[in-house]
Structure formats: C-alpha cells, structure tokens
Amino acid sequence: MIEANDAKKVLEVIGNNLIGVSHDSNNFQKLPDSFWGYFARGHDTKGTFGVIVTYSEEGKDVDELIKMYEKWVEKNKPKEAD
User: Fold this and answer.
1) Other beta carbons within 10 Å of 60
2) CA-based Rg of the chain, rounded to a whole angstrom?
3) Which of 29, 49, 57, 68 is the most exposed place for a label (fewest CB within 10 A)?
4) Is 54 part of a structural domain of the chain?
5) What is the pTM assigned to this prediction?
6) What is the C-alpha to C-alpha distance for residues 16 and 40, in angstroms, rounded to an integer?
7) Which domain holds residue 22?
8) DSSP reduced 3-state for 14
9) 53 domain residue, yes or no
10) Is 39 among the domain residues?
11) 81 within domain boundaries
C-alpha cells in the first residue's frame, strides 16, 4: 500500500508539471479541434507513476481511452499468490 506521504509527493509532482504546461501557450499550438491529450511519467525512490490528461469534444473518445487502459491493466496485472 502506498504511504500517504508518498502519495502526496506524487500528486505534488504531477500538479506542478501540469501547472508548468498550462503556463506555456506554445504547448497548445496547432492542436486538433476535437481531441487533446497529455502524458507525463515520473518516479521517486520507491516507484514509478504516470498521468494521462485527455480532453475531447466527444465524450466517447475519453470513455474508450479509459476502457483501453482498464483492459491493459487487467491483462498486465501481476497475479497474486493465494
């Protein structure tokens, strides 16, 4: 189980990264009109994390992306010993 302090650090890094992205309008030049995504990956001394931010004018795009990742996680989740 992730410790509260570790979770706080992860979210702090993600939040600061996204704030940096949002302050630079060059990050949003020539984006498609209907869909946008952002992926960041990071790590600390204990583990690795990633964050995906997705925007779409069509809600089904976001739903399909979430379903795709849920299937990937289920397929790649380590098997727990009984």
Assistant:
1) 8
2) 16
3) 29
4) yes
5) 0.57
6) 11
7) 4-76
8) helix
9) yes
10) yes
11) no
pLDDT tens sequence across 36-76: 888 878 777 777 888 888 888 888 988 998 899 899 889 98
Burial of 42 (0-12, 13-18, 19+ CB in 10 A): middle
Convert the pLDDT of each residue in 22-36 to its tens digit. 898 887 777 777 888
Please tell me the total count of domains within the chain. 1
Nearest alpha-carbon partner for 13 in 40, 47, 46, 53: 40
pLDDT recorded at residue 71: 94
Token pair 């849920």 is found at 70
Element (H or E) spanning 48, and its range? strand 48-56
- Contact call for residues 62 and 56 (beta carbons, < 8 A): yes
